[in-house]
Structures are given as C-alpha cells and as structure tokens.
Amino acid sequence: MSVAPFFSAIAVAVLLGSGTARAATSGSFDILSMNVAGLPAILQSNDVPGDKATNAGTIGSDFAKYGYDVINVQEDFNYHAYIYATDNHTYRTATSGGAGIGSGLNTLANFDWIDFTRIGWNKCSDASGSDCLTPKGFTLMRVKVDSGVYVDMYNIHADAGTESGDETARNANLQQVADYIDTWSIGNAVIVFGDTNSRYTRTADDIGIFASQNGLTDAWIQLERGGVVPTVESVCDNPSTTNDCETVDKVFYRGNSILGINATYFNYESTKFVQADGDILSDHNPITVVFSWAESNSLRQSDFWGGPHGTWFSDLTTLSSRSKPKASLLTFRGGSRLDSVGLTLTDGTAFVHGGTGGTQAQLSLGASEYWTTAVLCQGQKSGETRNFYIKATTSSGNMLTAGTATSDCATFSAPAGWQIVGFVGQDGDEMDQLAFIFAPQ
C-alpha cells in the first residue's frame, strides 16, 4: 500500500469544496431541433419571406421565450450573431463560421457539457445541390443533465437531395454517425436530433440504421405512430398543424444501464416560430420532444475529471451483466502522472485502463470492505489536461495512491450504501479523463 503525499492548502480547499451531492435521481428535460435557414439570402432564400437577419433575431427571441433545455440548430451560417444576440441560454457553442467555412451546427442549452467535438462528413454529393461547398457533418457533446447524469447528444445535418448520388452520400452520412456512436458512445445514453434530410420512404438512405445498429428509438415513431414505420410518404405543411406527417428533422434516443430515458411528448413547434404577420421563419418545422429520466437502482456514475483526449472506454456494458459486483483488488500505476487504473471484481472480472508506465501499486479488499471514495488531481501535459493522481479510500479506511498530486483536485464519493466498481472515460498511454461507476454494497 502506498502512502498519500502531502496536499497543499489549495488542494485541500478544492477537495473540501467538491461535494458529490445529487440534486435529484429523476426528472425531465425538453429538446428542440430547428434548421434556421441561415444560408446567405443572396444564395438561398429558403422560400422564407422577410429579411433573414430580422428573422434570425426573432428565432433567438423565441428560443429565449420558450426556454427549451437543449436546442440543436442547423444551417446556422451567416445570421448566427442575430440569433445569439436575442437568445439568453447559459451555454452556447461558438460558431464554426459562415457558409463555405463552418458546418452550420450549433447548440444552445440550459445544461453544461463536456467533450464537444465537430466531425465532418466523409462523403458528400452535389448531385442536386451544393452540399460539398460547406463542411457539413455532425457534433457530439456529453450534456450534464444533473450531477453524474450525462447524455451524449448528437447534432446532425445530412446531405440533401433525392438523386441517386445524394442518397448514396446520405446513406454514408448516417452510417458514419452510427459507427461513431458505436465507438465514442459505448455504454452511454444517447440522443441524436437534427436535420437528417431523410424519410423512411427513402429506403436507400436506411434511416432505420440508428434503431438496427445503435438501439435508438425514433420519438415520432414511438409517440405519434404507435411504433409503426411509415411505408407511404406523408409530407408536412409548413407550418404544420398535425404531427401525423413526416419531416426530415428527427429525434432518436436510448437510455443505458445507469439512466432510464423515455420520450413523453412530441410536437412540431411550427406555430411558435412565426413572424409577426404569421409567415414562417424557416423552411423547416421545428420539432420538440420532452424526456423523463430516472437513475438506475443498480448502477450510477460520478462526474468526470481530466481532459477530452485519448480513446473512449466504459465498463458499463460488462457491469450491467453482473449481479452484485464488488471490487476485491485495486491496481494503479503512476509516476509523474497517473498511468493506469484498474480493479478486479470478486468474480474475477478485471478492468484495466491506461498505459503500462509508472510504478504499480495494489490494494486487496476484505470480504466486507468496499471502495467508497476517490480523489483525482488533474494537470497539463503537452497542452492537454490529464489525470495526474488518484487516491482510493475504502470503507475500512485503507488507502491506495498513484501518480503525483496537483493543486487541481476533486473528491468523488459513492452514495451512502454504494461502492465504486468500475470506470468510464478516455485513455491512452496515461489517464486522460475519468469517472467512476457505483453499485450498491
């Protein structure tokens, strides 16, 4: 067993101030997806009357008025500043640029997030438009709904058009997102919402890939069609006064072994987003979904510490198939920084993440001893934030440490009657990002 190093006064203050109290174990939130028709007016009118800058300001005012918890926008190009000038959401992505430069994808939210990433399409088509002239694609962010409650939210704008080249490109776009989810959202709750430019009747697109490959549910299919996928095209008016018709703007979702998520309400918000004279603000009907959420009684998660680098990993899939998991052996490696973390369950299942550098330290737990508290310290290495140090404390007061403490630390404690049994995060040769998985004792 290694001995914990001396902590500076700053570190102690940080540790004492980093509580892990949870605000709630269940709740609800709503999301909105809206293509805001932000291409330059000189290039594309979008068949929307009025001045685009004025319309963008109205859209921003409506975002503030209705206060949706998470808003994904597409085609947010040259009038982005007008939307943000009248909106009041606390958290908002920075624009990636106007048409021809940026993707037009942005998010406005009442919740904070981590690990925001923009990804461009591997394939595009100009068969019936100019999709290749601007770097469209998708984004991912891990939205923090509550303490330890995270949902991977994707914003998407797929290739447009109905020519065979467009459908080939769009099929590749959707496949790219599905494959990305399989790599970067393993074990996570996921919501994909945006402009797919697809309908179920465009069978070459394979919009059903999110259900078949990723286990996602289409909120419109669930709530408005009783689970029945349409085989006959039904195009919506704009503004739409019914939810029976199908738009290319869609919402897909799934929960995970930590977080149950269920769509409880779906609506085309068309009548909320109109000009003063009743004209439309966009050539797309905005869509909203309300979700209820509840934490599991068998597995839960801490917040994250460290930086969004390395490769994503999760022990959740394995842990969800275990009955009453318990750690019997902790194994850490560290030197100047934290190289790896690992634990072995009583059934022999072993989790190891990170590299092979540093010095190994181990702690065996007794039959009635549980890992209940962890301290992580982070710092900068080569311009990236990494975890430099870990200290584990058990229910019997035994401790195990690895790495080198910094002044930027946080304490993660399992809820009363729970224990630490696994990890989620990102790693490489060292530990970049880390969170802990809890299970009942």
Keywords:
single chain; 441 residues; mainly beta; Vitelline Membrane Outer Layer Protein I, subunit A; 2 domains; 6-stranded mixed beta sheet; 25 strands; disordered N terminus
Task: List the topology elements.
Elements: H1 9-17, E1 26-35, H2 52-66, E2 70-74, H3 80-86, E3 91-92, E4 106-109, E5 113-120, E6 137-146, E7 149-157, H4 164-184, E8 190-195, H5 209-212, E9 217-218, H6 219-224, E10 249-254, E11 259-268, E12 287-295, E13 300-301, E14 305-306, E15 311-314, H7 316-319, E16 327-334, E17 338-345, E18 350-354, E19 359-364, E20 371-381, E21 384-394, E22 399-403, E23 409-413, E24 418-427, E25 431-440
Parallel strand pairs: 1-2, 7-8
Antiparallel strand pairs: 1-12, 2-4, 3-4, 5-6, 6-7, 8-10, 9-10, 11-12, 13-25, 14-25, 15-24, 16-17, 16-19, 17-18, 20-21, 20-23, 21-22, 24-25
CATH superfamily of the largest domain: Endonuclease/exonuclease/phosphatase
Radius of gyration: 24 Å
The N- and C-terminal alpha carbons lie at a distance of: 23 Å
Range of strand content: 35-45%
Number of separate helices: 7
Major beta sheet, specifics? 6 strands, mixed
Low-pLDDT sequence parts: 1-21
CATH 2nd-level architecture of the largest domain: 4-Layer Sandwich
Q: If you average the pLDDT, what whole number results?
A: 93
